[in-house]
Amino acid sequence: MRIYSLLVLFIFGLSAYSQDDLLLESLDYDKRTFKEVHIYSDCNNCDPPTKNQKTAVYLNNGSIITKTIFCKRKPCGIEIFEFKADEMLRQTSKNTWVSTSNVGDFGMQWDSSITSYYINNEYDEYSKIEKYYNGQTDRLESERVYQYDNKQRIVKIEINDFPNPDYFATFNPNDTAFFYDKDEKRFTTRRKEFTYQNDTTKIKYFKKDSLTGIEHITKTGNTTINYITDSQNNPRSKVIKTYNKLGQLVEIKTKENGYDGFGNGYDFFKYDKEIFSYDLKGRLSVHEYYINSELTISEKYLYK
Questions:
Q1: H or E, element range at 156
Q2: How many other CB atoms are there within 10 angstroms of residue 92's CB atom?
Q3: What are phi and psi of 236, to 5 degrees?
C-alpha cells in the first residue's frame, strides 16, 4: 500500500490545516455537555443523490472530543481535539489519502489509521503559539505566533513556514493544473497585522515583508462583512455573516476566487450561501449549503 499523505504528497501548503470545527465553534467550550452528536446529511447534487447518510459522529469525554468522518457508511477519517478548560491543547488528524494498488492502477481510498498531521498549542497571557507537525515524520512544518493586546484582541500573527523536503508541486485552485513554488523548499515568513477603529478591523497581509493583501472586517448591526483584496485593490473574497439576537451565526454569503490575502491558492467548495438553525437549547441543529439559491446539502445534528 502506497501512502500519499494528507491532500496527496504534501502538494498543498498549511492552508489545508485547520483547527476550526463548525460544531465546536457553535458551542461554548465551557458548556460542552453533550456526550454524542451524530450528523446525517442529504446530498441533492451527489451522483446519485443521497438521503439521511451518516457523515460524522462526535464523542465527548470532557477533555477529549473525537470526530469520526464517514464516507459511504464507512469511517474514512478521525479528528481528535484535546482541551484543558476552554483552551485547545492539541488537534490530531487521521485522514490520509492512500493508494490501494501496487501495480499502478491508481486505486485510492481514505485511511483513518494513519496520522496525517497534528497541531500543538501553547498559551501565554498575551500570546498563543500553534505548531503544525507532519504526522508521519513528526517534522515541524509551520509555526504561528498570535499576539494579543490588553483587550485580548489579536494584533499580529507571525507565520514561519519551514522547508518541506517532500514537496512536489502546488495545484491551482479547483484545478488539476499545477506549478512549482520555490518557497516550499526554503524557510519563509508571513505575517498579518491588525488595527481596530470603532466597528472596523483592518488586516494587512505580508509575505517576506512585502504587502500582499488587505482585509477589512466591518460590523453593522447583526452583520459582519469580510472583504479581502490584493495589494492593488483587486478583489479576492467577500464574506457576509449574519447573526441572531443571541449572537449565533445564522447565515453566510460567500464570493471567492480561490486565493487568500497572502496570494496563496486554495481549493474551495462553490457554496455561495449557508444557513444555520438551532434547537431550543441553542445548539446547532441544521446546516444547509446552497449554490445559486439551490439547496445542495443539508446536515442534521442529533445530540445524545
A1: strand 154-161
A2: 18
A3: -115, -45
Kindly report whether the peptide bond that precedes residue 163 is cis, defined as omega within 30 degrees of 0. Answer: no
Calculate ∠ Cα 204-210-216, nearest 5°.
Answer: 15
DSSP assignment letter at 223: E
Neighbours of 204 (CB within 10 A): 16
Q: How does pLDDT run across 152-190, given as a tens digit for each residue?
A: 999 999 999 999 888 887 777 777 777 788 888 899 999
What are the residues facing 171 on neighbouring strands? 178
Residue 52 grid coordinates: 439521511
**Collapsed DSSP state (helix, strand, coil) of residue 234:** coil
First-to-last alpha carbon distance for the chain, in angstroms, is 38
**Gap between the Cα atoms of 83 and 91, Å rounded:** 9
Q: Give bridge partners of residue 291 from the DSSP assignment.
A: 294
**CA 60, 18, 281 angle in degrees (round to 5)?**
40
Q: Which of 139, 74, 81 is nearest to 112 (CA)?
A: 74
